[in-house]
Fold:
Amino acid sequence: MSAIGTLNTAHIGVNVTDLDRSLRFYGEVLGFEVIGSGDADGRRHAFLGQGGRLVLTLWQQAEGGYDATRAGLHHLAFEAESIEKVREAETALKARGVTFAHDGVVAHREGAASGGIFFHDPDGTRLEISVPKGAEEAPAPHGTAPTCGFF
Structure:
């Protein structure tokens, strides 16, 4: 343990190109509620959460979509309550035309009990909704390599 003790993720900040579009996606599609918003020096932002707990901050300050070749965020992963909830999310996302990296629920690696769905937000940011167990029967698209690393 470091001198500062144990650290937990408090929230994640994501740059977006169109705050209104991203709010519809993260709110209507993923179920986050706006718990605050504002405009700082011409950069609109919104705080999103669940049950009053801050999870994401969206900042409208990007000029282009997500770029996997640049240093920074690789993907953003959310943990669901059950594999059934992951499948419900998949159905809702597909109904809205969201692009997926893999077809259906996939395991994190060959033989893993954990797994989920891998998709993109409106700016191309890579997202995951997964569970620690319940995906035992799901295929692993990359054998022993981590599924979340290859999308």
